[in-house]
Design a protein that fits this description.
Two copies of one chain form a homodimer.
Chain A lengths: L12 H21 L13 H5 L11 H12 L11 E2 L8 H13 L10 H17 L7 E5 L2 H16 L3 H4 L10 E6 L4 H9 L7 E4 L9 H13 L3 E8 L11 H11 L2 E5 L24 E4 L1 H4 L7 E5 L2 H8 L28 H36 L3 E3 L7 E6 L7 H15 L3 E7 L2 E7 L7 H16 L3
Parallel strand pairs in A: 1-11, 3-4, 3-5, 5-6, 6-7
Antiparallel strand pairs in A: 2-8, 7-8, 9-10, 10-12, 11-12
Amino acid sequence: MRASGQAVGPSDQPDFHSSAHQLTEWIEAYRSCLHELPVLSRVQPGDVEAAIPPVAPESPENFARILSDLDTTIVPGLTHWNHPGFMAYFASSASDPGILAEFVTAALNVNAMLWRTSPAATELESRMVDWVRDFVGLPDLFQGVIQDTASTSTFVALVAARGRAVPDVRELGLAGRSELGQCTVYGSRLAHMSLDKAAIAAGLGHANVRHVDVDERYAMRADALDAALAADRGAGRHPVMVCATLGTTSCTSCDPVAEIADVCAAHGVWLHVDAAYAGPAASLPELQPLFDGWQRADSIVLNPHKWMSVPIDCSVLLGRNLEEFRASLALTPEYLASDTTEHNLMDVGIALGRRFRALKLWFVFRWYGTNGLRAMLRRHCELAREFAARVAADPRLEIAAPVLFSTVCFRAIPPAGFTEGDWNHRLLSAVNREGSIFLSHAELDGRFTIRLTIGSVHTQREHVESAWESVERALQHPA
Amino acid sequence: MRASGQAVGPSDQPDFHSSAHQLTEWIEAYRSCLHELPVLSRVQPGDVEAAIPPVAPESPENFARILSDLDTTIVPGLTHWNHPGFMAYFASSASDPGILAEFVTAALNVNAMLWRTSPAATELESRMVDWVRDFVGLPDLFQGVIQDTASTSTFVALVAARGRAVPDVRELGLAGRSELGQCTVYGSRLAHMSLDKAAIAAGLGHANVRHVDVDERYAMRADALDAALAADRGAGRHPVMVCATLGTTSCTSCDPVAEIADVCAAHGVWLHVDAAYAGPAASLPELQPLFDGWQRADSIVLNPHKWMSVPIDCSVLLGRNLEEFRASLALTPEYLASDTTEHNLMDVGIALGRRFRALKLWFVFRWYGTNGLRAMLRRHCELAREFAARVAADPRLEIAAPVLFSTVCFRAIPPAGFTEGDWNHRLLSAVNREGSIFLSHAELDGRFTIRLTIGSVHTQREHVESAWESVERALQHPA
């Protein structure tokens, strides 16, 4: 029936078997040649779009043709996040169990919006959040849900925090209320831009985000936060939330959460901890001190899709009191009402429909075990320290920030005739042009800084050595 | 190396081959017995959670054991959205190409946040949005992005609309501004709750959502909307957005978009169209009149994960001017800056990380062709009409709302001694208890109404006939 284009339904099921096997072969071939592909795509803007017909086909196309287009059109246009040489931004790598779990997730295709619309999806999600929480050593008073990304998690936390600072905001909103002052939000100068975006989206305004000064280790100065909060309170403003970051995006610095928790307690302000990248590293006893005090937060976000080899997207939002989240957002219209009194996960977030994301966390935890995950995290940190040691030992280079986890920020000292920014930009371009390694950059104190971050399940010592060789070649022949 | 629990990496790759084949077999077995499983899960609250260990395993577990737990723990706890008898809420069904696409999406695991972080993901997404737009007959001035769900799409549209109504809201926010009146939002009494949630999240306040009256067909009264807008303007408030719904959740009624567009134009208010469910039906010429005027909207949402057999999640947000969306939310910190001037999809949404959702749309369009998709939509509408005819012909039942698409709202006339609500609740419970069919309910004019909706790629005539038989049995033996 499929070939006729007349019907869609179970009748096409016989095709699933052969297509799935063809696709498995395709995926295996992709994975086996991946390390030879340029990690950063070399296509020019518009190349891919030009290769895709402007309108959809009227009649069915052969699956073999779709697979062949994957090779010719899609793969050359990909920047390969699963490439072992992907050391830019923060890694998001898909492990075997993560990929397999996504396959079965799609086949099940359940919606975890209500408990009733798939009890197992709701209850496994609660359990997996518990597993993550215990893995990173947080107390069991924290409960949570899985969101798509840290940006969404932080936004949802901000909406809950806004409800604590302005109790009737849910009903009355923020506008047209003469009794209400401005609502302010606090993060360090290195806080992730998702904090700014959340403040904009929630109607607080970008101008009301305070970017608090940092110390020489790029950690938020608790005294500066205290002063900012006092100034805003004194001016009649309503401090809504402080976001402390454990593992900033620019250089993975850690704000002093224990001190910040004291300041938040003194001012009665919601403390949110952004540990999107570094959170899983709290499972390593030797790194626990960096997280000291985060158990005092009102909310915490950490992303298994970053450093736990779970495919994108999977962000865990933990809260000390999920009732505050529900009170800020939950709505149950009659068409979603059910007889059960179980919690419905849609109540802690914007999205109503919710993928069964817990399944991939479950597969990953069981496939590797917590020992396997810890071993990976530890190895990544070790490889970063080795790379940093090479940088530190090379008179042409310098370390730009303390190496706390698996990320190394460094820059080259420019030869005469070049500015620092220009020289490092050329160096980075030269590395990225080669194709085996992809690094990104950040700005620290206004200075262009090269970032190498290790977080992919596929990255081994040889790839980090290759990154070092690539940097050495680039020093000889910058772009 | 895996068995030792010491390392995680490419060394486990050999396992992928056999695991993928085992999993394919598991999926095929699940699919082939799916129609025999109870569509609505029968577990009790806590059953699934009790079966999952409270903490993660330290050492790796065998994949066969994970698969076996899928059978024993997960499947009994699922409400099977892919079951052919799933006729509750709105269907979200995963077709063969959709499932296969999710498998390859996970294996590629790219992040479509920036053009640079995977050009093909960005450009295919643009193309797929174009395909959807053309499929439903909208003019090519509409461009868009893929979001997770309609709730998110509507929220993002509201943030953009808020920026038009209050041009400096991005910078200054809504609070503490004496010059600013309340900001109001409009939908019919049957508008989806995501509109209310969006207004709450955006800081407008639930009390500022106007639930405009409807006519006897449950369509928004344009005159009532006009009056509400005039009253709010007269009181110094700022109307931000009108949401017209094409295919309401309760009964799939359609607001008169052309008339509403006139009203919005007269008042200078953003028009958003929620066609999350019904949107794909605009591809059928015979149903196009219901959509008349939607091409005048500022933004439109429709969900391929509902009625286009694309696995959850996939919601297309179309905008007349994406620049307004970007102006309301876009932020590019230095660590995400790149040399290209291409648009970055993260700029039209809250989430920074973005799955490669376009791939499943591409697979589905090509596998079925637009003719195949139209045939499915048409067949679903035809099956709904057949079911409605049986209801209309049965003196024990009555049709509760016009059947415009593939959803039938009906209720039973209670025998003496029962209230209408109680009788229909019993009837629904009896149907759902049987296990072969899952129906949901809605409230229309305060009256409990049973809803049957057809939208799954797996639902055929025999399943709708089975639904009718189930209703007949329930009439004999209500719960």
